[in-house]
Amino acid sequence: MKTYQTTLSTGIQPSPEFARKGLAEFAVNVGTKCGHFCSYCSSGSLLRMHRSFQEFGESPFRFGYAIVDPDTPERVARDAGHMRNRGLIQLCTTVDAWAPEAQEHDLGRRRLEAILGQPDWTIRVLTKNAAVQRDFDVLGQHRHRVLVGLSLTATPDREKRVAAVEPNASTITQRVAALRKAHRLGLRTYGMLCPLLPGIADDHQSIAELVGACIECGAEEIFVEPVNARGAGLKLTQEALLAAGFEKEAAAVGRIRSRVSWSRYCAELLAAVQQVMQERGVLGKLRFLLYPSHLTPGDQRRIRKHDAGVKWLGN
Length: 315
Description:
The protein has 315 residues and is α/β, with parallel strands linked by helices. It folds into 2 domains: 1-127, no CATH class; 135-315, no CATH class. Helices cover 41% and strands 16% of the residues. The chain is built from 14 helices and 12 strands. It has helices at residues 16-20, 43-47, 51-56, 72-82, 100-104, 107-116, 136-140, 159-165, 172-184, 204-216, 233-243, 247-255, 259-279, 297-305; strands at residues 2-5, 13-14, 26-28, 31-33, 65-68, 88-91, 122-127, 146-150, 188-193, 219-224, 286-290, 310-312. Strands 2-3-6-7-8-9-10-11-12 form a 9-stranded mixed sheet. A 3-stranded mixed sheet has the order 1-5-4. Strand 7 (122-127), helix 7 and strand 8 (146-150) form a beta-alpha-beta unit. The longest helix is centred in the C-terminal third of the chain and has 21 residues, at 259-279. The radius of gyration is 19 Å and the shape is globular. The protein starts with a strand and ends with a strand.
């Protein structure tokens, strides 16, 4: 993997979109291209106009390289000390602070220390890398000001399929173990089941197992999201699964590349998640993140009639 170094212009910045999701009021990021290489990632679309891609002559939609800013902790520390309006910070929103390139510069730990060294800030950690547990000692010193989440995108028995679409992330087994360790150490946790791909993690049994794991780890909330239908993510995910020999799963992803099929998948996924969480008595913890723009009118009407736990997003 090639790693480029750039300089970002921001440290801590407001994030109205993540505030609407109920995740955080502020965002901190460590670069513009994450080395986990998740095939369905939508960050390329969000960051495609960033100067760093032109600077290095790379496409934001390709893999094989990462772009990181080793100096972000210094800017974050400056903002953490100077900003008057303080609140919950998402670490991170577009890249992963514990991805391989970020680990080389210890960016996760350095930014945790920069933020938590100032009063009145709280942090929501989100990562796909079990390396975050190396920093549980820092989190433990501020346990009431931190929420820990490791994105669980399938059950452990499906992790070979996950490896095809999240090649540089930790295995699902490692992520679950790290989340359990966080809970065992008395850290606050939340669940992030995002995305739950068709043919891999959208069936009742998988959802029940994932929700159960979150509950066992003391999750205060459980966020769920269907895979993003915009951009090239679905096509890339289908190709990655096919190349790894998972033809059935590739076909399932391929089928939702049309609006009608994606909308049906989304509605059925929500219904399955609601049923599981109702059965477990934790429906009140559900935060199903949903942009209605890609839903068919019929599916949107049906969902709005039974939208317990839905966070309606967009305009």
